[in-house]
Amino acid sequence: MSYDSPFAALGNTRDTGEVENQVAEIVRSFAPGHDLERVSHAFNLLDRAFAGDLPGYQKLKTLYHNRTHTNEVVLCSARMLHGLHLAGNGLDADHIDAALIGALMHDVGYLMSDEEDSGTGAQFTDTHVLRGVDFTRKHLAGELSPELLDTTAKVILLTDHRKHPDWVKFDNPMQQRAAYATSTADLIGQMANREYLERLLLLYFEFEEARMGGFVDIHDLLEKTTGFYRMMKGRLDGDLQGLSAHLARHFAAQKGEERNFYTESIDRNLEYLERVVHQERERRLEFLKRGGVVDQVLELGKEV
User: Fold this and answer.
1) Domain assignments of the chain as residue spans, ordered by start
2) Residue 23 and residue 74 in contact, taking contact as beta carbons nearer than 8 Å
3) Which helix (DSSP H) or strand (DSSP E) does residue 208 occupy?
4) pLDDT tens string 179-218
5) d(Cα 287, Cα 220) in Å, to the nearest integer?
6) Which of 40, 113, 138, 260 could crosslink 248 through cysteines, CB 3.0-4.6 Å?
7) How far is the C-alpha of 197 from the C-alpha of 30, rounded, in Å?
8) Is the pTM higher than 0.70?
9) What is d(CA 199, CA 201) in angstroms, rounded to the nearest whole number?
């Protein structure tokens, strides 16, 4: 099957059950005997936590960092692991699980406890990575060995893209590779989403609540997104050792086309963004109609 649109090759990340099944299928394609029980438990824990069914926690409220974002990151992480395996840099069972569970838990720090009675969780943007590590250590201590829990924590820590990867000290190359794979997936998974440009509107309101980002308004964020990607591409190709190139190996094996559908999708998004930002500000939202995001923003009474 040939994909005219690279977005179609990335699959549906709104359906968590479908994503979990895809992750399992991918892992078993390169590690047939792998026991996915620990990963399945993490999926279930996150389901309960984000739905507000975990005692002590409220339902996830952040607009941008939602379950769809987590799904796209864990699915991309599985594809990264497959590509690495095909390149002769595969991981053992514990490090496969650390990469995938770290992907699932990397943004759980936006979740609010019952005692935190104001905001959406976006106010924790600056600390959400450390909060996510604390959550993971608390709720997965009974499922993961101390060594695996430590590795998973390092995977989560490396998703703080404001910091150089050297801030995390790794015990061995495989541990580092697991963290680099998930950190890479966090960046390219979200920017390749077909609705990424629309979701930037939601991200703006998270930044505004967190009092971070320094954007004057939504249009300022849209206008600076291409520059942000150039900066992140430097991180991907340099700091994170260009691991995203291995995704083409995965797609060659899974879909019969040696293409990196993630980078192709990002390029499509940025090309369209250039058209959007060349419109008068008053008309830009007319060009951002995917996923009903603009309607969602307007229903929330947000000023755009």
Assistant:
1) 10-299
2) yes
3) helix 196-210
4) 999 999 999 999 999 999 999 999 999 999 999 988 999 9
5) 16
6) 260
7) 34
8) yes
9) 5
Helix (H, G, I), strand (E, B) or coil at 201: helix
Measured CA to CA, the distance from residue 42 to residue 101 in angstroms comes to 6
CA distance 199 to 193: 9
**Residue range 116-153, pLDDT digits in tens:** 999 999 999 999 999 999 999 999 999 999 999 999 99
CB 43 within 8 A of CB 104: yes
Query: Is 10-299 CATH 1.10.1300?
Result: yes
**What is the distance between the alpha carbons of residues 81 and 27, in angstroms, rounded to a whole number?**
8
Nearest-angstrom CA–CA distance, 62 and 71: 15
Q: What is the rounded CA–CA span in Å between residue 285 and residue 200?
A: 12
Between CA 67 and CA 51 the distance in angstroms is 10
